[in-house]
């Protein structure tokens, strides 16, 4: 049995350095149900040490639950960037904590790190403050709760449609057709332009998006021309919003498979193809894995949600990034990636609330293409 959890962690110090505490919450990814909480004093230390202590406590709690996949969410940019390998750990005092966290990370099949704003990390922040209050004698020390076994099945809390006033509304649009699309070829980092049919598809998608959202705050695009052109046509239709390029929305790098058909790849790289189909951690020869793509796409989504809270946003990208966004939104397994088909200029829509709740409304709409 696989268990996908979210670890929200935080730490703080009243004085920096000063009396410090940390907190961590483990939630079932599919339902948001709290499975385990951890909090404690970190002694007299700094905010950063307390934040790392919260991360370690959260990873240990996830291990207690025998989780296999862990999505770590913290409002500490430093911890997230250092654990993701993008920032160096210059403070010698943090290196042992980072090493301990890395050892815990290695015990799981997959771990991701995402930054979230403080208002979305309230549960862990409250536990960190509880720990500091208990250490100061302001509140009686309470026992740590035991793990809650995830339910085999869950029922929705309400059938009522959620209010949209605080939701970020997102349209995910795949670019229009290119010569590679019609030929069924792997199209990753190669900058293949739209065909005439692709232009017509993009204009049809623009009309569909304009029919869904009255006020679009931003049109965001992969840097490749097939997406930028699709985004330009959509932007013109929704009121002339400028197109903003986000590099992390680029397609998966298919390496040596670029420009080849599935049959050609299967014939020339049969074992590599089988391994790639079997695991998101495997990359095509000379390319990148879906796990790598997922990591940067999650970063892009975090940026979008932080920059456009409560707004309508259009994201124009490729098959792999859009599939990975929808997989995470639906709390689906990796098999989802090979079972979902996305048409050129297909439109999917979803709403995301500040508390992390998500509603996927449509997947791969194509009525506008007929």
UniProtKB/TrEMBL annotation:
Cellular component per GO, a single term: cytoplasm
Active site (UniProt): 175, 251
Residues bound to substrate: 226
Compositionally skewed regions (Low complexity) per UniProt: 138-157
GO MF annotation terms: nucleic acid binding; phosphatase activity; RNA-DNA hybrid ribonuclease activity
Domain RNase H type-1: 1-141
InterPro entries: His_Pase_superF_clade-1, His_PPase_superfam, PGM_Phosphatase, RNaseH-like_sf, RNaseH/PGlycerate_mutase, RNaseH_domain, RNaseH_sf
Pfam family, one: RVT_3
Region of interest: Disordered: 134-160
Protein name: Putative phosphoglycerate mutase
């Amino acid at each position: 049995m696989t268990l996908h959890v979210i670890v929200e962690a935080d730490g703080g110090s009243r004085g920096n350095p000063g009396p410090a505490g940390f907190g961590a919450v483990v939630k079932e990814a599919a339902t948001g149900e709290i499975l385990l909480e951890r909090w404690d004093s970190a002694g007299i230390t700094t905010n950063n040490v307390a934040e790392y202590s919260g991360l370690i406590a959260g990873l240990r709690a996830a291990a207690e639950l025998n989780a296999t996949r862990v999505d770590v969410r913290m409002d500490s940019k430093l911890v997230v960037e250092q654990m993701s390998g993008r920032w160096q750990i210059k403070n010698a005092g943090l290196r042992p904590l980072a090493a301990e966290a890395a050892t815990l990370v290695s015990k799981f099949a997959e771990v991701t790190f995402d930054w979230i704003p403080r208002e979305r990390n309230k549960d862990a922040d409250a536990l960190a403050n509880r720990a500091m209050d208990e250490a100061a004698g302001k509140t009686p020390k309470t026992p740590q709760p035991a793990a809650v076994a995830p339910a085999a099945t869950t029922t929705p809390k309400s059938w009522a449609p959620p209010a949209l006033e605080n939701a970020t509304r997102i349209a995910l649009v795949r670019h229009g057709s290119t010569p590679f699309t019609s030929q069924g070829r792997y199209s990753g980092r190669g900058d293949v332009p739209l065909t005439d049919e692709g232009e017509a598809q993009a204009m049809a998608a623009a009309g569909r998006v304009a029919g869904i959202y009255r006020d679009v705050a931003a049109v965001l695009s992969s840097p490749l021309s097939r997406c930028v052109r699709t985004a330009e046509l959509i932007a013109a239709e929704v009121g002339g919003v400028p197109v903003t390029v986000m590099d992390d929305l680029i397609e998966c790098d298919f390496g040596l498979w670029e420009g080849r058909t599935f049959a050609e790849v299967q014939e020339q790289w049969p074992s590599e193809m089988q391994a790639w189909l079997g695991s998101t951690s495997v990359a095509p020869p000379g390319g990148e894995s879906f796990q790598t793509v997922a990591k940067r796409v999650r970063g892009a989504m975090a940026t979008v949600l932080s920059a456009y809270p409560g707004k309508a946003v259009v994201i124009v990208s490729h098959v792999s990034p859009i599939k990975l966004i929808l997989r995470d939104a639906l709390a689906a397994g990796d098999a989802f990636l090979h079972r979902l088909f996305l048409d050129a200029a297909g439109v999917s829509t979803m709403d995301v609330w500040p508390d992390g709740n998500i509603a996927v409304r449509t997947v791969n709409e194509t009525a506008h293409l007929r």
